[in-house]
Design goal:
Blueprint: H1 13-27, H2 29-35, H3 57-75, E1 83-86, H4 91-101, H5 106-113, H6 115-128, H7 131-139, E2 145-151, H8 155-170, E3 174-184, E4 189-190, E5 202-220, E6 223-231, E7 242-245, E8 250-256, E9 259-264, H9 271-275, E10 280-286, H10 287-290, E11 312-315, E12 327-330, H11 336-344, H12 379-388, E13 392-403, E14 413-422, H13 424-438, E15 440-442, H14 445-448, H15 450-456, E16 461-462, E17 464-465, E18 475-477, E19 484-486, H16 490-497, H17 506-509, E20 514-515, E21 521-524, E22 528-529, H18 531-535, H19 538-541, H20 550-555, E23 559-565, H21 572-584, E24 589-595, E25 597-599, H22 616-623, H23 625-633, E26 642-644, H24 647-675, H25 690-711, H26 718-737, H27 748-768, H28 773-784, H29 804-826, H30 845-853
Parallel strand pairs: 1-2, 6-9, 7-11, 15-24, 23-24, 25-26
Antiparallel strand pairs: 3-4, 3-14, 5-6, 5-13, 7-12, 8-9, 8-10, 14-16, 17-22, 18-19, 18-21, 20-21
């Protein structure tokens, strides 16, 4: 006779997890689960992390959610391949390669190291940093195809990216332009607007502000008149070409000592602090009255531009009176608003800052040939120079949120430069339409708020980077006639050049040349692609589409679901959507699950350098991954909120869900082994006992709720329903049924109690399986004697167990008991002490009849 394996009084979760992880590998449970499905394939895209990073609580949470959904679908009979991916290119890898090689500039890369050696170093870094992730993912009890992972640096992937670029180019979506873009002086490359929206890109920073005076050709009451302008970027003042005012704002000429300043009237309240006394208003006017007035250049470097319309007052709709003096200094090469203002008013461009962020020779007062500082570092020097030359009025310090490079952490500047752009404006109507009609967002509010607003305000995308370790932009140009050729495959490269490449990185592709029809030699443009362009190609590039797997991809696109945190709304989700729309006129995904951010218990961002969180590996080894999962699943982060993570929250989840499930199974096994109850098959209960009917009704309701939510990807309710089930099972059913298991004889009622409890426990393990895969499998195997719960079918509790009326009646009865316990506690009356009378004021006669019927239980 088979008996159940006895359970200890409390679970040794770390040992159980170690044993179960080993058993899964030994039995190939993951592989079996993928091929076990009888239904069609469910496709999801796994957002590729950089291999150089270390998993933290945020990456752990997203892994847990992906695993939850995938396990649910496999139990529903679907095949769910889970291909891992690596984001191998871009600045994160390049900065580590620079450290490894002991260099810190592009000049050293190109002149000392060479692009080939530098890219080889990048490749080596990517290749050796994978095992740490594998250890974490295994400990998470997450199943992924690690060995078959796609890598954005692989030849097949890069060829698909090149194909995508050519498709976009041929559709007229890619163009080159000289525009203002975020720029990192340290990395010497342009960035996209989205790069400045990375979670740690915009950070508090202290900067110097300055108010300068611009001399006009006016006098008033015998005093010289000046325009005032306020800026937090003093280094841009040598490039000033115009001043912008608000057309309908009120301005004033104010006397200060022996000078007259023009400023916005609404800002004059700040003047006493600046000048030590209240200013005297001599004259008032509208901004429109100032338009066209000229002034002397603050610096002489570009004075000749006055002949082309520079050094005059113009209007701009972004000028306000909230800060500064209501007059905005404008340098067209160093601000997007500045650029468009000058372009709209036909004012020329000057750009006296080089690729390293240093002033060029034109700026004679600040140019340094050796050991030059970046323009941001030159702010104090510029301010001092302006004071020395009588052109500064006041200065101070401001703390504001300022964009930084998302990899090297240095402050960015905005700089005009040549770059390649993808035309978002052309795509925008379709991007919005597809999002509105074909994508299910969880939570739904993201569709119209965060993602919808981002689409509405999206700008053309700078897809080029002036770097090395990424997919080269596959454009060849003729230096003589300007002919341009775009190549989108290895075959096309071979047909043009006669060379068959087996590596598409710069050191190889840059060597590809071929004759132009004019007789000159065509060379590739120097830029590489933004790694977000590559990430946006994940759906098809991981399959080497269209060169392979064409039929499979076209029948499995878009994917069924993706999951990431809120920061990816403006990043990966967006770029997937853009590339899918541009290439296929379809969305990239049908369902998108978004979760919130995990902070430390004080509300600060998790930081390895600040040591403000416990390594997830340590927590998983101490408490097991199941409790970790359940804690995160019931948190506010599942509702796109912020979770202030506490290690104690995992301990709380042990008490709330893990131990109750363990204790319920332990109770059953202890009595079942005594009575020799161990059926070969799990019986479907046929009981008339109201407690049995109630717990079966609760099980049915729980399964229905979880299934309905999961079908819509409402993962945030998963643990709420499990919590209600476990509370009912342990605190009501088992407590009220104990006496039924005590008798020596196997009466019909006792057998019904066993049948019911076993049926409920087995199906509860199935319901727990996607969320708590380790313990649920361990207990399921003991209870059933069969293979892994992850190879079992999702519960389909018979509809005959539905009993909403009984659930309502027991809920009402339990509420009465709960109130009675509260009164006992308030009056210091012990639970075991009998009461002579208990009066309950109920809302209706029906409620009174229900409670009366359950008097014996009460």
């Amino acid at each position: 006779m088979r008996i159940y394996q006895a359970l200890e009084s409390s679970p040794k979760l770390a040992q159980i997890q170690k044993d179960m992880l080993a058993k899964w590998k030994q039995e190939d449970v993951f592989e079996k689960s993928v091929h076990n499905g009888q239904k069609e394939e469910i496709v999801f895209y796994d957002g590729p992390p950089f291999p150089t990073g270390i998993p933290h609580h945020g990456t752990v949470l997203v892994s847990f959610i992906k695993d939850l959904i995938a396990r649910y679908h496999t139990m529903k009979g679907y095949s769910v391949p889970r291909v891992w991916g690596w984001d191998c290119h871009g600045l994160p890898i390049e900065t580590q390669a620079e450290k490894a090689l002991g260099i810190n500039s592009k000049t050293e890369i190109e002149r000392s190291i060479g692009i080939g050696k530098f890219n080889d170093a990048c490749h080596e870094i990517v290749s050796k940093n994978n095992e740490t992730w594998r250890e974490y993912v295994d400990q998470m009890a997450r199943w992924v195809d690690y060995d078959g992972a796609y890598k954005t640096m692989n030849l097949s992937y890069m060829e698909s990216v090149m194909w995508a670029f050519k498709q976009c180019y041929d559709k007229g979506l890619i163009y080159r332009n000289y525009r203002v873009t975020p720029y990192c002086c340290r990395c010497e490359t342009s960035l996209s607007i989205s790069d400045t929206r990375e979670s740690d890109s915009t950070r508090p920073r202290q900067d110097r502000w300055i108010i300068t005076k611009f001399k006009t050709d006016e006098t008033l009451d015998g005093k010289q008149v000046y325009f005032l302008a306020w800026t937090t970027t003093p280094w841009t003042l040598p490039s000033n070409l115009c001043l912008a005012v608000g057309e309908n704002l009120d301005y004033a000429y104010v006397a200060v000592a022996d000078e007259v300043f023009i400023a916005c009237k609404a800002t004059l309240s700040h003047f006493p602090k600046i000048f030590g006394k209240k200013p005297e208003i001599l004259k008032e006017c509208k901004g429109s009255d100032l338009v066209g007035k000229t002034y002397e250049p603050l610096f002489p470097y570009f004075a000749d531009k006055a002949q082309e319309g520079a050094f005059r007052v113009v209007t701009a709709d972004y000028v306000g009176s909230e800060e500064g003096v209501g007059i905005v200094h404008t340098a067209p090469a160093f601000g997007e608003d500045d650029y468009w203002t000058c372009r709209n008013h036909k004012i020329p461009m000057v750009n006296p800052v080089d690729e390293k962020g240093h002033f060029t020779k034109e700026v004679t007062d600040f140019y340094v040939e050796k050991d030059a500082k970046t323009v941001i570092e030159m702010n104090p020097t510029v301010i001092r120079f302006l004071y020395d030359n009588g052109k500064a009025v006041a200065d101070g310090t401001i703390e504001h949120n300022y964009p930084h490079c998302w990899r090297c952490r240095e402050p960015l500047i905005y700089k005009a430069m040549d770059a390649w752009y993808l035309d978002i404006e052309k795509l925008k109507p379709r991007l919005i339409e597809l999002n509105n009609k074909e994508v299910n967002w969880v939570p739904d509010s993201v569709k119209d708020s965060r993602f919808g607003k981002w689409l509405e305000n999206a700008r053309d995308w700078n897809i080029s980077r002036n770097r090395y370790w990424s997919t080269p932009i596959p454009i060849w140009e003729c230096p003589d006639c300007g002919e341009r050729v775009v190549l989108g495959s290895l075959d096309e490269i071979e047909q043009r050049s006669g060379k068959r490449l087996d590596n598409l990185h710069r050191q190889y592709v840059d060597e590809v040349t071929f004759p132009c029809k004019c007789g000159a030699t065509m060379h590739r443009v120097p830029e590489v692609l933004d790694c977000w362009f590559e990430s946006g190609c994940v759906p098809f590039a991981q399959k080497h589409y269209p060169f392979e797997n064409k039929e499979w991809f076209e029948s499995h696109f878009p994917c069924d679901f993706i999951v990431e945190y809120t920061g990816q709304i403006r990043c990966w989700f967006y770029y997937l959507h853009v590339m899918a729309t541009a290439l296929f006129d379809r969305p990239a995904f049908k369902n998108c699950v978004v979760h919130g951010t995990i902070l430390d218990e004080n509300g600060k961002k998790l930081s390895k350098s600040n040591h403000n969180y416990t390594d997830p590996m340590q927590l998983m080894k101490e408490f097991g991954t199941d409790a970790f999962r359940l804690y995160l699943f019931q948190s506010n982060a599942m509702l796109v909120g912020d979770l202030r993570f506490k290690d104690s929250g995992i301990k709380d989840m042990l008490q709330q869900l893990i131990l109750p499930l363990w204790n319920a199974c332990n109770f059953f096994i202890s009595y079942a082994n005594i009575d020799g109850y161990c059926p070969d098959e799990i019986p479907v209960p046929q009981s008339d006992n109201e407690l049995d009917k109630w717990i079966l009704a609760l099980l049915y309701e729980t399964e229905q709720k979880i299934t309905a939510n999961m079908e819509q990807y409402f993962v945030n309710h998963f643990t709420d329903n499990l919590d209600a089930l476990m509370d009912g099972l342990t605190n009501w059913f088992i407590r009220r049924s104990r006496r039924r298991f005590w008798g020596k004889e196997m009466t019909a009622d006792k057998k019904n109690a066993y049948d019911t409890l076993l049926y409920v426990l087995v199906n509860t393990c199935k319901l727990f399986a996607p969320a708590a895969p380790v313990l649920s499998d361990y207990l399921y195997r003991i209870l059933t004697g069969s293979d892994s719960v992850h190879l079992a079918a999702w519960p389909q509790i018979p509809a005959e167990f539905e009993n909403a009326a009984l659930l309502h009646e027991i809920d009402l009865t339990r509420n009465v008991i709960s109130l009675a316990h509260a009164l006992r506690s308030k009056n210091n009356i012990k639970i075991r002490q009998p009461l002579s009378t208990l009066r309950a004021a109920l809302v209706s006669k029906e409620a009174a009849e229900i409670v009366t019927r359950f008097t014996d239980i009460i």
